[in-house]
Design goal:
Oligomer: single chain
Distance between the termini: 27 Å
Number of helices: 3
Number of strands: 2
Strand order of the largest sheet: 1-2
Number of domains: 2
Radius of gyration: 17 Å
Structural class: mainly alpha
Order of helices and strands: EEHHH
Length: about 120
């Protein structure tokens, strides 16, 4: 089930995908990349033209089905994955940017204990 966390790239709270959900969306994102590359190879189109073909709509639709939230840019889905983030900051409660982060990039608070390697 999607968990809402603060995304430091998007600068807002968004539903994050768990690993099972991520597997489904990652497959669709990989298909999007393959279709974009093939379109460019076969037509000589620019990247902007290929992105206009909306090959990421399947991934966006699945994300919305899983989370109930609408996202307009399929590239954002690459980082809407719970496992990429660390625990909540002890001071501001926003998630650390990575599981191994030693301080909070949002407020600067130093983490009191490091995760196991």
């Amino acid at each position: 089930m999607a968990k809402t966390l603060y995304c430091w790239r998007c600068k807002r709270n968004v539903p994050m995908l768990d690993e099972h959900e991520w597997t489904e969306v990652a497959t669709l994102l990989s298909t999007m990349m393959s279709r974009t590359q093939e379109f460019r190879r076969s037509t000589g189109a620019s990247l902007a033209e290929a992105l206009g073909q909306r090959f990421g709509d399947d991934a966006l639709a699945r994300y919305q089905q899983l989370t109930g939230a609408r996202e307009s840019n399929p590239d954002n889905l690459w980082h809407h994955r719970t496992s990429l983030f660390g625990p909540p900051c002890e001071a501001c409660e926003k998630p650390l940017r990575t599981p191994r982060a030693t301080y909070c990039a949002e407020c600067g608070f130093a983490r009191s204990e490091l995760p196991p390697k």
